[in-house]
Structures are given as C-alpha cells and as structure tokens.
C-alpha cells in the first residue's frame, strides 16, 4: 500500500480513517441493526464474524491500493459510528460513493458532513471528474444526503439493483468537478 493511499480525513465532528480489525465490535453493533441494512446490498450482520469479514475485505483492498470504506470515527466519543467510501473508482475519472451510519446517529447532518469531505477528496486528490451515488427510491434519508451535498438528481434507474431477492428502482445522483463550490 502506498503511504498516501486513503489518508485520514478530518471533518468538523468526525475522523475518517482506514478500518482496522479492532473495529469489528463497534461495526457489528450498528450493522446488525435491520433498520440500517434495510436498503443496503448487504444483510444485517448476524454475528461479529460478519463484521470481521467486512473489515477483512476492506483490508485486502487497501493492501492493493483499491479504494474501500473509511471508518467514520465520532470525535466526541472516539467510537466507530459508520463507514463511507468509494465503491468503484473507474479509469474514466469517475467514482461512486457508498455509506452507512449507526441508527442512533441519523438525522444530525453527520453523513452529509462526511460525504462533502469525501467528494472534496475525490476531486482534489484523486482528480476525479464525476462522483455519483445511487439510492433505493424509498431511501429518502440517503438521497437527501446527496441533495445536501449539491449532487444533481439524474433520474430513476428502473429495476437497476438486485438485492435481497428483489429488483429495486434507484435514484441516480452525480456531481461534476466544475460544480464544486470551492473549485
Ligand atoms: C442514509 C444515511 C447515511 C443518512 O445519514 P444521516 O447522517 O442521517 O444524514 P443527514 O442527517 O446528513 O441527512 C439526512 C436528511 O434526510 C432527511 N430524512 C431522513 N429520513 C427522511 C424521511 N423518511 N423523509 C424525509 N426526509 C428524511 C433528514 O431530515 C435529513 O435532512 P435535513 O438535514 O434537511 O433535515 C443513514 O440514514 C443510514 O446510514 N442509513 C442506513 C444505511 C443506508 O441506507 N445507506 C445508504 C445506502 S444507498
């Protein structure tokens, strides 16, 4: 892994850093919540081993300089409260963002704060041209995050995602580097 790959990012209330095996307990605490996993592609974690495997997959990607989630650490408590990162970074200088947050932290503007910083990193450091995000049409909280991050709604992709034995319609959002407030 190169030294500058996925550096620590600081936001007002959080620190984003690479996941480590010791995060498994705190990750399991929120990823086992059915409400958190309701619109995600992954199932709620059944045991802490599911969280360990999730972290292991991230570690394998970090080791190959492939983007994965940062852990979101709440400064006030020094605890892992969620994850956010680039799911795919395409050679065409575009990438997709994904995220999840423990339920007790919802609706406090936290993920919007985190996603804004990850978008800035993607444009300024990774030199991306376009950053996109998708959310199930029913996942209002998620597409509100995209709107609060100045992303543009591009339309509904019908039957775009197959997860949990069903096809789902998803809303597609994106932001271009030229649309940054602070280019
Ligand atoms: C989606 C998620 C990351 C949002 O994180 P968050 O920190 O609560 O987001 P924010 O507080 O920054 O913004 C959420 C916005 O949605 C609004 N919102 C949430 N649920 C809503 C609902 N059912 N109807 C209308 N607005 C809603 C909130 O009021 C807030 O908007 P506001 O600040 O204008 O009031 C979080 O709910 C989560 O982790 N969910 C489970 C995992 C998930 O679905 N991940 C995304 C997969 S695409």
UniProtKB/TrEMBL annotation:
InterPro entries: Acyl_CoA_acyltransferase, GNAT_dom, N-acetyltransferase
SUPFAM superfamilies per the UniProt record, alphabetical: Acyl-CoA N-acyltransferases (Nat)
MF term (GO), any: acyltransferase activity
Keyword presence, Transferase: yes
One Pfam match: Acetyltransf_3
Entry-linked PROSITE patterns: GNAT
Span of domain N-acetyltransferase: 14-177
Keywords noted in UniProt: Acyltransferase, Transferase
Enzyme class: transferase
EC number: 2.3.-.-
Presence of the UniProt keyword Chloroplast in the record: no
Classification via PANTHER family: GNAT FAMILY, PUTATIVE (AFU_ORTHOLOGUE AFUA_3G00765)-RELATED-RELATED (PTHR43792), RIBOSOMAL-PROTEIN-ALANINE ACETYLTRANSFERASE (PTHR43792:SF9)
Protein name: GNAT family N-acetyltransferase
Species assigned in the record: Alicyclobacillus fodiniaquatilis
């Amino acid at each position: 892994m190169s030294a500058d790959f996925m550096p620590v990012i600081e936001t007002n209330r959080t620190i984003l850093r690479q996941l480590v095996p010791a995060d498994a307990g705190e990750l399991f605490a929120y990823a086992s919540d059915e409400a958190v996993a309701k619109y995600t592609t992954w199932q709620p974690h059944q045991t802490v081993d599911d969280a360990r495997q999730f972290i292991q997959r991230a570690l394998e990607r970090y080791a190959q300089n492939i983007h994965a989630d940062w852990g979101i650490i709440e400064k006030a408590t020094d605890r892992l409260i969620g994850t956010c990162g680039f799911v795919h970074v395409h050679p065409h200088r575009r990438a997709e963002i994904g995220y999840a947050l423990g339920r007790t932290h919802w609706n406090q503007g936290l993920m919007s704060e985190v996603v804004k910083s990850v978008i800035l990193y993607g444009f300024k450091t990774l030199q991306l041209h376009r950053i996109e995000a998708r959310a199930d049409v029913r996942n209002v909280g998620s597409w509100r995050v995209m709107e609060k991050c100045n992303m543009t709604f591009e339309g509904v992709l019908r039957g775009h995602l197959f997860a949990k034995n069903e096809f789902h319609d998803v809303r597609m959002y994106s932001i271009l580097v030229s649309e940054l407030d602070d280019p």
